[in-house]
DNA sequence: AGGGGAACCCGTACGC
DNA sequence: TGCGTACGGGTTCCCC
């Protein structure tokens, strides 16, 4: 039984859902490619990905608008157009935004841009979404999401306040988008390994020292992954179809049964914390 | 309130 | 070999 196909390992399926570093990579690339370009036309090929508008309204509102910026909030790519409208693209599992993609049967939303360029939302399984919002809708959506973990205002001092009132496991809490934005299963596992904190530990039980370690670990792992253009297991691709390079740097996620990089103890994999794959070192995570 | 579970999708893996 | 089915995975919504 070979255990290193490069796409899966240990028998478990790993899709590698776009989290903060992956959506940040897409947003940065697209901002360089698309900012300032006018939309000259739009086609909705799979209306079920749309939220907050119909196909007819989406095409009417977006056509002839100009893209001013492309940025990221949580795991969502935010295209800000003039005329006070924004397109919120949340890729979820198999979704991706592609610049100048050749014809493809899985395109759900297609934008024609000036100078002959195109921007496509492609999604094989279509659990991702493309929402059209006005400024008020964007503000309301953003207000429901917690602090950006790479922001200056996300510090060890504010973490206890964020965790106050939740008695769930710390791993679940840092993945809760209402508390902290953009952390999914991969980076939750990695941050807790880096910080030496047991994923099942109750959120309110962290010491001040552990809060510091956790905030630093979250910032470090997200920053390092962005530098590597994210983690690709199978599905994730950047806006030009490229893969992320951070999978080789993961210390625990997908490495259940392998030796801990700090102490050599076999890493434990469990689904007991939140029903998701949780990998940790029972010796150096307390 | 906050926790649990279903719904949303369909390619892939696996069972017979 | 071929067909049928269970599975996954983040978010939202509903229910308790």
Summarize the structure.
By secondary structure, the protein is of the alpha+beta class. 26% of the residues lie in helices and 20% in strands. Strand 4 (76-81) and strand 5 (85-90) form a beta hairpin.
Description:
The protein has 286 residues and is α+β, with helices and mostly antiparallel strands. Helices cover 26% and strands 20% of the residues. It has helices at residues 20-34, 55-62, 135-143, 159-163, 170-175, 185-195, 208-227; strands at 39-44, 50-51, 67-73, 76-81, 85-90, 95-99, 107-113, 118-123, 129-134, 268-270, 278-280. The strands form three sheets. It has a five-stranded mixed beta sheet with strand order 2-9-5-4-3, sandwiched between helices. It has a four-stranded antiparallel beta sheet with strand order 1-7-8-6, covered by helices on one side. Strands 10-11 form a two-stranded antiparallel ribbon. Strand 10 (268-270) and strand 11 (278-280) form a beta hairpin. Helix 1 packs across helix 7 (208-227) and helix 6 (185-195) crosses helix 7 (208-227). It is elongated. Mean pLDDT is 90; it is low at 1-12. It binds a DNA duplex (16 and 16 nucleotides) through residues 13, 15, 17, 48, 75, 90, 92-94, 123-129, 165-168, 175, 177, 184-185, 276.
């Amino acid at each position: 039984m070979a255990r290193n196909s490069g796409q899966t390992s240990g028998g478990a399926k790993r899709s590698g859902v776009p989290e903060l570093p992956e959506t940040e990579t897409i947003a940065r690339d697209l901002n360089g490619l698309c900012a300032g370009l006018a939309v000259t036309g739009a086609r909705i090929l799979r209306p079920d990905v749309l939220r907050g508008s119909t196909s007819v309204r989406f095409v009417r509102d977006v056509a002839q608008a100009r893209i001013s910026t492309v940025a990221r909030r949580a795991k969502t790519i935010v295209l800000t157009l003039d005329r006070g409208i924004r397109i919120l693209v949340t890729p979820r599992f198999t979704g991706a935004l592609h610049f100048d993609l050749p014809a493809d049967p899985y395109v759900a939303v297609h934008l024609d841009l000036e100078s002959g360029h195109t921007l496509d939302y492609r999604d094989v399984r279509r659990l991702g979404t493309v929402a059209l919002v006005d400024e008020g809708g964007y503000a309301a959506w953003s207000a429901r999401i917690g602090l950006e973990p790479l922001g200056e205002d996300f510090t060890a001092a504010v973490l206890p306040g964020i965790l106050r009132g939740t008695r769930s496991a710390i791993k679940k809490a840092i993945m809760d988008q209402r508390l902290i934005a953009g952390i999914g299963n991969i980076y939750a596992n990695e941050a807790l390994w880096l910080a030496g904190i047991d994923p099942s530990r109750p959120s309110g039980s962290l010491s001040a020292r552990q809060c510091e370690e956790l905030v630093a670990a979250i910032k470090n792992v997200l920053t390092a992954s962005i530098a590597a253009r994210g983690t690709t297991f199978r599905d994730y691709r950047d806006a030009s179809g490229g893969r992320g390079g951070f999978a080789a740097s993961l210390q625990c996620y997908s490495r259940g049964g392998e030796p801990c990089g700090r102490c050599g103890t076999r890493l434990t994999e469990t689904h007991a914390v939140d029903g998701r794959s949780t990998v940790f070192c029972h010796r150096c995570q307390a």
